[in-house]
User: Fold these one by one.
Assistant:
Number 1:
Amino acid sequence: MLGGSFEAAYLRKLIWLCVVLFLRTTLCVFQVREWIGFAGVDTNNISDHLVQFTFMTGGGKAKRSFLQLIWLLCTWVVWNERNNRLFNNIATSIPRLLDKVRLLSLGWLKAKNAMFVFGTQRWWSSPLACLGIS
């Protein structure tokens, strides 16, 4: 059994690795912002990054909720990319990571709303218009 200090140090290192990976894949976040249709500047603090990404465009609760979903999906995709690089020695290109965010967000919205009628092509071209929150 490992000692508590070793486990804590390992956990800190793992968290640091995830933060570094997320912040270094800001190109993915940049492309996500470009896909959604807004620009911004990234911060080096992960919690500030979420707040800035969510509130930078203004808008109501629906828009903020959508942006939180997209940010969390970016985090999920980056975490999975970290696992693939670490355990499988497989690296995915930034455009493919963006595709994963797009597909996961569309799948989540269709699962939560059976009446969501937009397909992949329309969703990929203008997600905010599909949600009626342009």
Number 2:
Amino acid sequence: MTCGAGDGGVVVSASSITTAASTGSHMLKINGYSAAKQLLITGSHAKSCEFEAAGHTWCIFYYPNGTERKAADYISFFLRLARNVDGVVNARVRFSLDRPPRRRWRCGEEEEEAQAEAEGGTLPPREPRS
């Protein structure tokens, strides 16, 4: 048995490869940023819980003092596969930082805070009230 036109005619064939990107997201909340900066030396990291996104299991490595001495004034985030997989995994990643909810001042202090922010300044530290 042969595969083809058989009578010498033109054989036309077609195929397609379709890939679909998988997407996902994960929110990582860092509680105790200042404590992490003090406890974890440059090159040390905290690891997030594992999470599922885009068909794989991932984790985030967080370096509050950077990964090396020349990056000690920066924070670093790395997305890592949590498990070995066969083949190559390509990922397009976007990290974004979200500010925590604004601190509410006691009566009368909200206007002062808003004015300082509008002028591009900061408020001096508050003395604790007893």
Number 3:
Amino acid sequence: MGPFRTCDPPHTDSKVGLRYAERGIKLIRYECDKCGKALTANDSDRYVVKIEIYAAAGPVELDLEPQADPGAELSKVLASLSDIHPDELEDKTYRLFRFDVCDRCRRELLKRPLGTQTAERPSR
């Protein structure tokens, strides 16, 4: 998953491949993250899909009494967050995914972005 993968140079038996291998250079290899089809950097069949997930909470409203200690209130909030693993906290607030897909998989994603048909959606 991701924008690209590094791989050993193909055709290391060729002069070009050997030059890359001798210098320790890795080539970038693109493939569809959904079906695995090989793609190239400038392929007209290559599309980028980004999925951004973030908390939809509104602004935080603080009801601080005039005599309240803001430092103590902040300490309480930080203490409550110390019990949560940093990865879990990040998952609950913001995540960004980036995928390379081929044209066929792009068309599938446009039809069913969440992986289910509209008819399968549970009633509310």
Number 4:
Amino acid sequence: MATKIYQAYSVIDAARSRISKSFDEFEKVYISFSGGKDSTVMMHLALDEAKKRNRKVGILIIDLEAQYADTITHLNAMVEMYKENIDLQVDVAKEKKWKRFWRSVSGVMTGVAIVEGVIIYSTLK
């Protein structure tokens, strides 16, 4: 069993550092926002950094037409909270609009979905 190695910084500090580096290295920063707990934390962290730098973040929300009413309410509240610092892309995902394929990049399977011209990447390790 592997031994856990503790670092001198917290998980939240590490996340903020990585997000800051993304803003340093990329002209445009994009995140996907589902309204779930994980993407909510990511959106707060990314938009806090965007506000500090007076920048905008591209936000992709895909309406699966199956979200709970409370999720939609939360999505709308988050968009309203950060409206000055976001470029919003909302799409309704319908089965016929999706093209999915997988390819191996350096031994890592990378998923690519194209939704009406919006390209979404994910990686399986």
